[in-house]
Amino acid sequence: MTTTLTVKNLTFAYTDNQPPVLENINFKLALNTFNLLVGPSGCGKSTFFKLLAGLYPEYGGKITAGDILLNDVSVNNIVPFERAKYLAMLFQNPSRQFAMRTVEEQITFALENIQLDRSKIKQRVAWVLSELHLENFTKRELLTLSGGEQQRVALATILALDSQIILLDEPFANVDPVARKQLLHDLKKLQLKHHKTIFITDHDFSNYTGLVDNLYKIENKQLTKGSTKILDKIIFSKQTQQNFGSLHNLTWNNLSLSIHDKILLQPNTLYLPKGQVGLLSGANGVGKSTFFGALTHQTTYEGDIFYQQKLSTKYKRKAWAQIIGLVFQNSTDQFVRLTIAEELNLSKKHSLHPEYWTDSRINDAYQLLNLTNLSKQHIVYQLSGGQQRKLQVLSMLIMAQPVLLLDEPLASLDSTSLNNVLQLIIEVTQALQLSTLIISHQLVEVRPQIDYELEITDKTLHLRRTTNET
Amino acid sequence: MKLKPLNPAILFLIMLGIGLQTTFVKSVWLNCIVSLLSILYIIIFRRVKLKTIFIVILVTLPLAFGSWWSFMLFGTTDKWHIAWIYGTRVYAYLLIGSALTLTVSVKQLLFNLAGHLKLSETFVFGLLAAFNLLPRVRQQFKRIQYSAQMRGITYRPWQPGLYLRIIIIALNWSGDLAEAMTSQGFSEGYQRTALQTQRLPKWQWGLTILLLLLYTYCGFILKPW
């Protein structure tokens, strides 16, 4: 059985009166290959994948011209359970793709959808879990898994469905470098051993050397083929110069963290230096986000946190929120208003540094982030992942709390956007003497630009020692 | 011989049938019998600790007492009888409901309702996903509050803005989940592999009819005190 996926003269728009997102695209996916799709954030990569998967226009938008053919039949005319045997998709947000509670239940659910015989289901579940070395996860609850583990379970679900074509829409956005390598390795194995066709969108080019057969780009609403040479540049992740300042307002004393009786962080005493940008690194699931949760009083912790020598619990919740700003991992958690203009105006109105954030400065920042081509009346929830991220960071920078924690502010950004966002964060931090700490997995880009790096390893938080790493 | 629990779908029907009638039946005796039988069933087939059952009963005490007391205070005719009817009725409702919720998981119940009583599978998996997300909702609520406070706004429980945000986030979640489920082959209105349900022997149907008729007969014809 050979599967073909062909796109013919495709034009797609979200609404009738808006310009199209993709225009006149022609494309044929070569079978049994490993493909990568790149392009700046907001260019329509996710849209293109959802069209290929037959999710659009069912879940939004309109095909104004052309068609997508799966085995010469329009992909939208194929019932989902039939479609799943040929093509399935893995999504950006790991936790929102599971209907069931445990790993075993989730894969069983997918197999019931394609009407696999009950007697064969158990066998198939056991087989995929062993293929991806997830045997120990069989009975685990999905919500307790880390982002990387959840993506591997999602991949196991697709492997169980035996879909010929696997589409992955920024599958590594919330995944640490080690888990990322593991997943890429798994995918290559699926291509070579199980003859799957892999198609990924990604902003981060690392670890793709030697894996990719075809590279595609979306630029100006068009899909073009690019050279895989751009992946061959081997970049060494530079060492952070540890320049840990001594001025500080936020300190903690014997702070320790645990989750479900499992200790994440041993008692730790340190502070965040003023006027500096730090990086908080460590593998997925070590407790970086939980650490931010503790500092913002969102999750429980042991020990004491102080701001200007006053115990954090002595501050009212409202006052604390004006001291510690948090940029959430999920951009949509940040938004308080509906449109871009309202969002920015709200921050401007309540900014803690109105003297700095003049209209012209806000405009400059807005331009630097390349958001000017959007109408300011645009609904924030309809922006692309990358655009949401930039707006989210900007609105918190305008608020300018003395302590600013950013949880993956650079995920799903293309390299230009990434550098601009980082530049803006550094600029504001220095100008307003903020204490800024960033969680990021984009080590190559971030390390050379920041002042210090804190790392969580072996349940301890410490300034990263200088060991060379590629 | 090991006792086997009733099929969740049957248990659901019994709970519904007796619960509805309890609203109209005025009998302290019947309320007590329903409560006692329910407790017995819960203790035998429980999925929770005995302590939980005890707490449930204890927490309800003020409610039952309040109901009893208000009829004692404000009742006009036959106030002793009426007060006891309403006092015990609170427990009858609570315990017959608990006989279902404390012995059966949500998943078991929904699967059996789909398998034996033709509940739509779209509904079943939609609800299941919602239940599985519940632990997240609390965390999300905190996040919404903090995100607003950071921007100088405090949401009060009566402000529509708070609920608008919860609704938008819920819509986002459900949209993403629906797309993922579609991609995993879930097709509305099409056949799936039959769900794993518990057996439903014919005698359980007989038992249901018998119990409901018996209750109707006692409640509306015999009318014990």
From TrEMBL, chain A:
**Entry similarity comment:** Belongs to the ABC transporter superfamily.
Q: Which residues cross the membrane?
A: none
Q: Name one GO cellular component term.
A: ATP-binding cassette (ABC) transporter complex
> Protein name, please?
Energy-coupling factor ABC transporter ATP-binding protein
Q: State the organism of origin.
A: Ligilactobacillus ubinensis
- UniProt-listed Gene3D superfamilies: P-loop containing nucleotide triphosphate hydrolases (3.40.50.300)
- Keywords of this entry: ATP-binding, Cell membrane, Membrane, Nucleotide-binding, Translocase, Transport
How does this protein lie in the membrane? Peripheral membrane protein
The cross-references to SMART domains, in alphabetical order and at most eight, read: AAA (SM00382)
- Keyword Nucleotide-binding among UniProt keywords: yes
Determine if Cell wall biogenesis/degradation is one of this entry's keywords. no
Q: Where is the ABC transporter domain?
A: 5-245, 250-470
UniProtKB/TrEMBL annotation, chain B:
What is the annotated localization of this protein? Membrane
Topology of the protein relative to the lipid bilayer: Multi-pass membrane protein
Q: Does the keyword Membrane apply?
A: yes
- Main location, first listed in the record: membrane
Q: Which domain of life is it from?
A: Bacteria
Q: Which GO terms describe its cellular component?
A: plasma membrane
Q: Which UniProt keywords apply?
A: Membrane, Transmembrane, Transmembrane helix
Q: Which residues cross the membrane?
A: 5-22, 28-45, 52-71, 91-110, 162-182, 203-222
Q: InterPro entries of this UniProt entry?
A: ABC/ECF_trnsptr_transmembrane
Q: What is this protein called?
A: Energy-coupling factor transporter transmembrane protein EcfT
- State the organism of origin: Ligilactobacillus ubinensis
